[in-house]
Design a protein that fits this description.
single chain, 726 residues, mainly alpha, extended, disordered C terminus, cell projection, ARMC9, cilium biogenesis/degradation, coiled coil
């Protein structure tokens, strides 16, 4: 009670101020009378009078500027005293501001008796034009305002029928009346009583806290899904390792009787495969001299780690999904594209992920087989940067899976749209990364390789790789890997031969780049194009062997062996034999046997849901739940047992994600078990040095760093880009 008495006067003042603001005149009189009867002192309200006086002055200044045509004065006051939340969020305020800009643009035409000053009139029209191109662009789709976007370009708007209304005597007074009412309402709202302010601030703080907690929950869910993906990958790797080891142990045990490997050595090898906690007990309790003991123990260790049955995700109403992807708001489109991508990237490898992908394919989610002008694929060229990026991410995610590539490659429509987006996209780095990633994965399929080569994509790749330090790691790796895949074809080699000097210069510079992940692809591209005699001649003329030997001094053992193969190719006199590669057989499948979903697909999300807004799987299962029709699908089997030999340059198409995660590309010839073991252990390790120097021809000891001096990457138009442009 004491606290209330201490602040009683202030509390009574808050109540009185609110009643006065809300114009409860009778209630205020009764309240004041009762306070007086009880001896309660009410504070004076001079503060409100002062505020009212200031607001009145601002309103008068705005109206005076309107009458005088003082454009700059008016909009300076407008932006200073009208809250941005109202200017940008209130539809009436936006429309009023649009008409106010028209008023000032034509002010001289309406008020001048003589011919208006041309310079001043041009300045006003230019100011209006700038507004239309910036803030006023938001109303360009509104029928009411559409004709006024032509106003700056009409020589004499006074006689134009579309603008007849603007020059009537009643138009300006009506606009002024609307302005006065708006200002009265706004400044009355700005004199908010303290009681209402306290209520709003308290409610706002609670709202912000709930939003923060909601955001933390979303982040926690995302992290849990990431950790689950990592756990499943580690578990899958564990099973693969134990399975392979069991087979090896069976082979080793068979040689015990021949005294090729002693039981003691076999025992030490097998013990090293187990965890530290198991080593001591196994070493003392297991007799590894008994045939079959080691492999039995290894297989038995898999039993406790057996994966649980994974439930299938709920089916969706794809017709409704596609309809909203085409007709919905940009924000809804972005959230749907994000949710569909997450459903694919966060699903568990195996039946769950395959079922998700098959549902997308069977329902033609991206309208790859449709012929309508309005299709989901058109989102790749939408006006919203976020929608374009999220569409590119989804296509890249689908292209990460072999069945997804097969779906996207049914026609060249998707390929052409991706090429157009890659050529046009110069603002959003992540959009370009995902488009490039999808194209690189497309290059695992021969018909699409052919189309990309014919479209001149090799020239575009060479052009951007001239400045590798201006590219992100993802763009650099996937660009070089795509170039290598295209260079493996005869048509690609011949295209490189037309600009051999430039291609060799770019590839030799890339050999010394600090990103060592690109080295296998650079080596593969070099090895491939050097099968062309004219390219070999150009390489010898520029001293390529000396440059390569310079890198041999700095590289590791595998790098050295690969460069030796390249030098051997450089010094050969053989002519290319098209029959060896069956290069013209479009039916041959260059697909890898592994599906790899890289983590970059979900990096740096642009949108986050607001409080109460659905996203991700919750959005799909709440708004788009369909009839349960999910069925599993048997995975097609790839070519088993064919591995890439780490000693040789890559000679079959590969993706950076698959190669980085230890999934070797197919090789032309069988390789020894030792080389296969190197491939499983990622034999292509990075050299210990940083950015290596590129030696000048004939000067093995020269040290001249390859550092770009300009980062002005301008995309080239492939359709008209040939050897002459270099």
């Amino acid at each position: 009670m004491g606290d209330i008495l201490a602040h009683e006067s202030e509390l009574l003042g808050l109540v009185k101020e609110y009643l006065d603001f809300a114009e409860f005149e009778d209630t205020l009189k009764t309240f004041s009378k009762e306070c007086k009867m009880k001896g309660k002192a009410l504070p004076k309200t001079a503060r409100r009078s002062l505020r009212d006086s200031k607001s009145s002055i601002i309103q008068k200044d705005l109206i005076a500027a309107f009458d005088d045509g003082a454009q700059k004065v008016f909009f300076d006051l407008w932006e200073e005293h009208i809250p941005s939340s109202i200017r940008d969020g209130d539809s009436f305020a936006q429309k009023l501001e649009f008409y106010l800009h028209i008023h000032f643009a034509i002010y001289l035409l309406k008020r001048s008796v003589r011919r208006p000053d041309k310079e001043e009139l041009d300045e006003r029209i230019s100011y209006f034009k700038t507004y239309l191109e910036s803030k006023g662009a938001a109303l360009s789709q509104t029928t009411e305002f559409l004709p006024f976007y032509a106003l700056p370009f009409v020589p004499n708007p006074m006689v134009h029928p579309s603008f007849k209304e603007l020059f009537q005597d009643s138009w300006s007074p009506e606009l002024k009346l609307k302005l006065e009412k708006f200002l009265a309402l706004i400044f009355k709202a700005s004199n908010t009583p303290k009681l209402l302010t306290l209520y709003k601030e308290n409610g706002q703080s609670h709202k912000e806290m709930l939003q923060q907690l909601h955001q933390q929950l979303l982040e926690a869910e995302r992290r849990s899904m990431t950790y689950l993906k990592r756990y499943n990958k580690i578990q899958a790797d564990y099973h693969n390792l134990i399975g392979v080891t069991a087979e090896l142990v069976d082979s080793l045990e068979a040689t015990v009787s021949g005294k090729m490997i002693t039981p003691e050595y076999l025992q030490s090898v097998c013990i090293r495969l187990f965890s530290n906690q198991m080593r001591q007990s196994l070493a003392h309790s297991v007799d590894f001299t008994r045939p079959g003991t080691a492999s039995t123990m290894l297989r038995a260790s898999l039993a406790p780690m057996k994966l649980k049955d994974v439930p299938l995700l709920p089916s969706l109403d794809y017709e409704k999904l596609k309809r909203d992807l085409i007709l919905g708001s940009d924000r809804l489109k972005a959230f749907l594209l994000q949710a569909l991508r997450w459903r694919l990237t966060t699903s568990l490898p195996g039946e769950q992920r395959e079922t998700v992908l098959q549902a997308y394919i069977s329902n033609d989610l991206l309208d790859c087989h449709g012929h309508s002008q309005r299709s989901v694929l058109q989102l790749l060229h939408g006006r919203s940067d976020v929608v374009r990026q999220y569409m590119a991410r989804l296509i890249n995610a689908i292209a990460s899976l072999a069945e997804g590539r097969l779906y996207l490659a049914q026609s060249t429509k998707v390929l052409r749209m991706l090429e157009e987006r890659l050529k046009e996209e110069d603002k959003d780095v992540i959009t370009r990364e995902n488009v490039l990633g999808a194209l690189q994965k497309f290059s695992l399929r021969r018909p699409l390789q052919t189309a990309m080569i014919q479209d001149g994509l090799i020239f575009w790749l060479i052009d951007i790789l001239k400045e590798p330090d201006c590219l992100s790691d993802y763009t650099l790796e996937y660009s070089v890997a795509l170039l290598m895949n295209l260079c493996l074809r005869s048509a690609g080699k011949n295209m490189c031969a037309s600009v051999a000097g430039l291609v060799l210069k770019v590839l030799s510079d890339l050999l010394g780049h600090e990103n060592h992940e690109i080295q296998p692809y650079v080596n593969g591209a070099l090895y491939s194009i050097l099968s062309i005699p004219s390219v070999r001649e150009e390489a010898r003329a520029m001293g390529m062997e000396d440059i390569l030997r310079c890198f041999m001094k700095e590289g590791n053992a595998e790098m050295v062996r690969q460069i030796e193969f390249i030098i051997k190719q450089l010094n050969s006199e053989e002519f290319p034999d098209g029959g060896v590669e069956s290069d013209d057989d479009e039916d041959e499948d260059d697909e890898e046997d592994h599906d790899t979903m890289e983590a970059d697909l979900d990096k740096d999300e642009l949108i986050q849901p607001q409080l109460g807004e659905l996203s991700g799987e919750k959005l799909l299962t709440t708004e788009y739940l369909g009839i349960m029709t999910n069925t599993g699908k048997t995975r097609r089997k790839g070519m088993a047992g064919v591995q890439w030999g780490g000693d040789e340059p890559l000679r079959r198409p590969v993706t950076p994600s698959g190669h980085r995660h230890g999934y070797p590309a197919l090789e032309d010839h069988p390789v020894s078990p030792q080389i296969s073991q190197h491939a499983r252990n990622r034999c292509l390790q990075s050299p210990p040095t940083a950015h290596l120097p590129v030696c000048q021809a004939g000067e093995p000891g020269a040290s001249e760093p390859c550092v770009s001096t300009s980062c002005n990457n301008t995309g080239s138009t492939w359709g008209h880009f040939g050897a002459a442009d270099f």
